[in-house]
Specification:
By secondary structure, the chain is an alpha+beta fold. The chain has helices at about 25-40, 105-110, 115-140, 175-195, 210-220; strands spanning about 50, 55-65, 85-90, 95-105, 205-210, 225, 260-265, 265-270, 295-300, 305-320, 325-340, 345-350. It has five helices and twelve strands.
Length: about 350
């Protein structure tokens, strides 16, 4: 018999005790997952996010208003009482895992790269699930009633969602100009409540279903995240040009990213498919479970919730001899909970 062809197995680590053709796969896979994970996260930088090295819990203090008095001559300054409390935020009980197994023969016969797209998809999946959980935590915060003197969530500070007669069921499929204007009105009502309760004026956000976001965009009255006013005509470019179809200024004719936002009263409005829309009661951890069938959007300030991360992205790979393939795993462990309910408002359909 002829001698077998001596192939260079460039993923083999000869320094290993038992070298295999996939020894050096993990660093590549891990990097691809991490890049995809970071590129697809949308909400973690818009809430209180903390990485913890040990334990399963992080504590966040809360204080409520310091009073003042006129000092009279000869009076002792004794100090005033300040309401304080502590919030305990916990990790989820178990990590979230994305995995796939690549068959040797399938990979050998394929005329395209198999592992790279799958590793990127793993990172994207983990990021999407983190964002979906954050959206649910924000909604749960908005449904939380206050405890004196700390006000609760919702438009009336008692865990009540905001709505409008324009938010009918068909808004979820065909958003109208009336619904878009109603959403802006809800934002205005929200920021008034926030200002009355000394909610910080920075880091204010809103997210809604894509259908409604594009209806908001069509109103032509909002400012985009890059400083251009949506609406107007080509003749008005660039001051009033639409970044997506402006033929007069091709340098601003580019694809909108997921981070593109509209601006109204200091609130950055994003679009996302991660706004929950089903009843997950009984299907998920109670921390995230709820009836979200009427949820249309969320308005929040960064202090509404805290999000914890114990494991960033951990990747592992192992040879499965019985299946003649390589099992690849990516996992992360996160958690979260409510901090200031007054900073979250759920927007629902009628």
């Amino acid at each position: 018999m002829p001698s077998p062809v001596q192939q260079v197995r460039f993923l083999t680590n000869i320094a290993a005790a038992s070298p295999t053709p996939t020894d050096m796969l993990l660093p590549v896979f891990g990097g691809e997952v991490l890049v995809a994970y970071m590129n697809h996260l949308q909400f973690t930088n818009k809430v209180n996010h903390r990485t913890i090295a040990t334990g399963v819990e992080a504590k966040f203090p809360a204080t409520w208003k310091v009073s003042s008095d006129i000092h009279q001559a000869g009076e002792l300054i004794l100090g005033s009482d300040v309401a304080t409390r502590e919030y305990s935020i916990y990790l989820d009980s178990r990590p979230r895992v994305a995995s796939f197994e690549v068959d040797d023969i399938d990979e050998m016969l394929a005329h395209f790269d198999v592992r790279s797209p799958l590793s990127q998809a793993s990172g994207q999946e983990l990021a999407e699930q983190v964002d979906k959980n954050i959206a649910k935590l924000l909604i749960k915060a908005s449904r939380t009633a206050g405890t004196t003197p700390f006000p609760g969530g919702g438009i009336d500070q008692n865990g009540t969602a905001a709505t409008d007669t324009a938010f009918t069921a068909n808004v979820l499929t065909i958003a109208t100009a009336a619904a878009a204007q109603a959403f802006l009105n809800v934002i205005e009502r929200t920021v008034i409540v926030w200002d009355q309760n000394n909610v910080p004026t920075n880091d204010r956000y809103a997210v809604c279903r894509p259908e409604l976001w594009y209806a908001l965009r069509r109103l032509g009255t909002l400012i985009s995240g890059s400083g251009y006013t949506f609406g107007g005509t080509n003749a008005q470019a660039p001051a009033m040009g639409n970044k997506d179809w402006d033929s007069v200024n091709p340098q601003i004719n580019k694809f909108m990213s997921k981070d593109e936002y509209l601006l109204h009263l200091g609130v950055q409005i994003y679009r996302s498919t991660f706004v929950p829309g089903t009843n997950t009661t009984g299907l998920e951890d109670s921390k995230y479970a709820g009836d979200y069938t009427k949820t249309l959007g969320i308005i929040w300030q960064k202090d509404a919730i805290a999000h914890l991360q114990k494991l960033g992205i951990v990747t592992e790979t192992g040879r499965d001899i019985r299946a003649q393939g390589d099992l690849v795993i990516a996992k992360t462990m996160t958690g979260g909970g409510t901090l200031r309910p007054v900073c979250a408002v759920e927007v629902i359909t009628q």
